[in-house]
Amino acid sequence: MPRMAVADRRRELVDAAVRVIARDGVAAATTRAVVAEAGMSLASLHYAFPSREHLLEAVIVEVTEQERRAAEAGLLPVATGAEDGTEAGPADPPALEDVIAGGLERYVEHLVARPEREQALLELALYAMRTPGQRGALVAQYAVYQESARATLSTAALAARCRWTVPLDQAARALVMATEGLTTVWLADRDTEAARRTARFAARALAALAEPA
Q: Which of 31, 60, 108, 170 is spaced 20 to 30 A from 145 at the CA atom?
């Protein structure tokens, strides 16, 4: 069997940890449980990660980065061109509400397709709140979300030829809170149509914080 590169080993162990955490919770994500899920030996895990805590930190970093990419990929294509890939004409910018709603609706699709990652992040957030020395990882996680929200709202306003009437940081925080609430409620009730309606409502509320440039 060819030797697995360390980066590939780390990625498989992170993915296995996500599945265990989403299914059984953080407490159940022991090193033995993770290697069993990944089909590896315990030595393989310790070769890739010095400790279980380092593995959990890697899970938070990796899944947060995936969330950032998914969020930005969901909004930016709408913000930079029409649905068919052509540039919007000079006289027909999209409505800001539609741009934001399109991004949030794509986020809902991502959530429905990969619920285990969101559930794992929720479990890890609660773990970080309760565990001494782990809050920094949680702060860093939400800093990534805030920066992603700033980037997407800035691009959305540019596409719709609008300007924000409140500081961009405030609008970005509102977007982060909206997506976090949408995520938690959907994980509880799995009502996708209600989540889509909520996404449109949140887009309307955010768009009300802007005016034509």
A: 31
Provide the residue count of the chain.
Answer: 213
At 94, phi and psi to the nearest 5? -70, 155
Task: Name the CA dihedral angle for 143, 139, 119, 187, rounded to a multiple of 10 degrees.
Answer: -70
- pLDDT tens string 157-213: 999 999 999 999 999 999 999 999 999 999 999 999 999 999 999 999 999 999 998
Task: Write down the domain spans for the chain.
Answer: 1-49, 52-212
pLDDT digit string, tens, across residues 93-125: 899 999 999 989 988 998 899 888 888 888 888
How does DSSP classify residue 91? T
Tell me, which fold does domain 52-212 have in CATH?
Tetracycline Repressor; domain 2 (1.10.357)
Q: Are 55 and 14 in contact (CB under 8 A)?
A: yes
Q: Are 93 and 159 in contact (CB under 8 A)?
A: yes
Q: What does the alpha-carbon distance between residue 150 and residue 156 come to, in Å, rounded to a whole number?
A: 10
CATH architecture label of 1-49: Orthogonal Bundle (1.10)
pTM above 0.70, yes or no: yes
* Cα dihedral sign, 19-26-55-150: positive
